[in-house]
Give the backbone structure.
Amino acid sequence: MKHYFILFALCCFSFVTQAQNQKGLIVNELNQPLEAAYIYNESSESHAHSSENGVFVINHTKPGDSLRIGLLGYKTKFITLEAVATLKIVLEEKAFQLDEMLISEELNTVSTISRLDLDITPVNSSQEVLRKVPGLFIGQHAGGGKAEQLFLRGFDIDHGTDVSISVDGMPVNMVSHAHGQGYSDLHFVIPETVNKIDFGKGAYYAKEGDFNTAGYVNFSTKDYLKTSEISFSVGQFNSLRTVGLFDLLEDTKNQNAYVALEYISTDGPFESPQNFNRLNLFGKYVHFSPENDKLTLTASHFTSRWDASGQIPQREVDNGNISRFGAIDDTEGGETQRTNLNVSFDKYISDHTSISTNAFYSHYAFELYSNFTFFLEDPVNGDQIFQKEDRNIFGVNTAITHNTNLGDTELIVTSGLGLRHDISDDVELSRTLNRSTTLERIQFGDINQTNIDAFVDATFDFGKFKIAPALRFDYFKFMYNDALQTNYETLSETKTLLSPKLNFYYTAQDNLQLYLKSGLGFHSNDTRVVVANGGEDILPRSYGADLGTIWKPFPKLVVNSALWYLFLEQEFVYVGDAGIVEPSGKTRRLGVDLGLRYQLNDWLFLDTDATYTHARSIEEADGEDYIPLAPDFTLVGGLAVDDYKGFSGGLRFRYLDDRAANEDNSIVAEGYMVTDFNANYTINNVTFGIAIENLFDVEWNETQFATESRLQNEAQSVEEIHFTPGTPFFLKGTVSYRF
C-alpha cells in the first residue's frame, strides 16, 4: 500500500508540474515593457504573447524547459526556465529584419507591418500619419486647419462618416457636428509622439462601434522617450515648424513622463495668404506598480486658426481670370481648439484575467466660414456660411480579457462596456457677410447625444485554425433643442442595435495565413436628422465580408491581399453646409486590396499598396448609378533607406485614378500622381534633413467637387468641377538635436 501511495503522489506531482503556469515580464534595455513579444516553450510547444504592460503567462511549463522569446526589431533570446515566481526578460534592440518574421508567431501581422512602416519612414505631419493606413487617401480643402477629406474602400468618407478614428482609446469622430457627421480633426496629435497605428478594414471588430463601416484607425502614443529632442524646420511659402519633446523623469524606476509641443505656421502657395498657425501641447505620465499594473495620465491642448481661398471653379482658371492659386472669395477660414484629459488603467486580476479601462474628457470648439456657391443663393451679399459649435465629451471604456481552456482548445474571451456622452451647445449654421455680419440663422440649437455599448468577443484556438465570433450591442439617445422655435421643446429619439461578427483564421504554414471576416457595422446619423425624420434610419447598417491572405513567399517579402464586399443601407444625411436633410440610397461596393513589403538588404526597403473598388448605387439605372468621388483605383508606394552610414530617407509616390464627380459620370474628377522625397544625415546627436513635396512639380487637384455655382457677373449658374489645388514643388529643411 505504501508503494502505491508513493506512486500516486509522484503521478500527482508530475501532473501538477506539467500543468504549471509561468508568469513573466518582457522589457527592453531601457527597462520599458514590450508588447506583442512571442514566447514559445520548445519543450511543451505552448506559447504566449506579452501584453501592453509587458506581462505574459505561458501554460504547461516546468523548470528546465527552454523558452524562445522573439519580437521583430529585437534579438531573439533563449532561456532555460528556473523555479522563479516571475521571470524578467530583457530584449536587446536591433535593426528590423523582415526574414526573421514568422506570420504564425505574430499577434497582429497588420499592426507589425504598420510598426515597420513607422520605423522605416517616420512621419512629421498629421497628414502623413493618416497616410500610413494602406488605401487611405486624404485631401485638404480649407487652408490647412479644417479636418481632411478621407477616401477609403470606395467611400468619399467626407471628414469621417465611415471610418472610426481614436487616439489612446479616446474617440476623434464628432457626432452631430456643425460641419458634417463624424468630423474627425486629428491635428491635435503631434506626429513624433505616435508609437503604434492599429487599423482594420471593414466592420468585423466588436470593440469598434459607431462609424466603423469602411474601417477603423486607432493611434497609440509613446509611453516614453528614448531621448529628448528639439527640431526646427523652415520652408517655402513662409513655412515654419518647431517641435520639442522633453523627457521629465529620465531613469526613474517604474515611471515615465514627458511633454511635447509643436508650433506650425505657413502662408501656403496661395495668392491670398493662409495665415495658418497651430499650437499643440501634449503631456503623458506612466506609472507601473510592483505588480506591473499600469496607470497612464495624458493631457493635451491644441488651437489653430487659418484663412482660406476655398474651392475655385474650373471655368475661371480656364479663361485666365484667376490662377490655380487664386480665389473667388478669400474670406473663408476658421478657428478650432480641443483640450483632452485621458486616464487609463491596465491590471492583471489573475494569471488568466486582465482588465483595461480608460476615462476621458474633451472640450472642443469650432468656427468655420465657407462659400461654395459664391452668388448662387444671394446675388447681392454672396453665399458665405458660418458653422459653429462648443462641445463637451465625457466617456469611459472598460474591457476584461480572460484566457482559459476547453479541453485542448484555448479560449480567449473579451467583454467590454462603454459610454460616450456629447453635449454640444449653440450649434449654428448662419448666412454671413465678410466674416463679420450675420444675415440669417438657418440652424441654431443644443444637441445632447448618448451612446452606451457592450460587446463580447471570443476566440477559439484549435491550433492552426481559429474561430472568432462576437456580438456588439449599442444604445443611442438623441436630444435636440431648437433655439429658433418660439416654444421650448426637447425633441428626442432612442435606438438600440445588435451587430454580430464572425471571423475565421487558418494558418496553413508558418508563413501563410488565410482569413474570412464577416460582420455588420453602422454609423449613426446626425441628431437633427433623427428627430426631423421621427427616428427613421437612425443607424444605417453595413454588411461586409473579407476573404484574404497574409503570405511570406520569400524570406524578405510579405504580401497581404483581400477580396471584399460591402453593402450599405438607405439613410438620411444631414447636409451641414445647407442645413437640410437628403436621402441617400442603398449602395454596394466590392474590391481588391494588395500590398507588399520587401527588404532588399539591411537598409533598403520597398513597399506598395494597391486598391481597386467597384462602387455603385443599387437603386439607380445603369449609367446613373455612380457614387460621386468614390475612388476606384489607388496606388501608393516607395523606397526607403534606413540608417545607411548615417543616411536615411526615401522616395514615395501616391496615385489616385480619375473618378466620377456626379451620378452619371458626366463630370470627372481628375486623378493625379504625386512624388515626395526626403533625405536625412545624422552626425552624433544632430540630424540634418531636407524634404520635397511634389518633387516633379505636377499640377494636381487635392480635392474636387461637382458644384453648382454662380459668379457675381454671371446670369446663369454653372455646374462643374470646383477644386482646391494641390501643393506645388515645396522644399523645406530640418535640423534636429537629441539630448
The first strand starts at residue 20 and ends at 27. The chain has a mean pLDDT of 92.
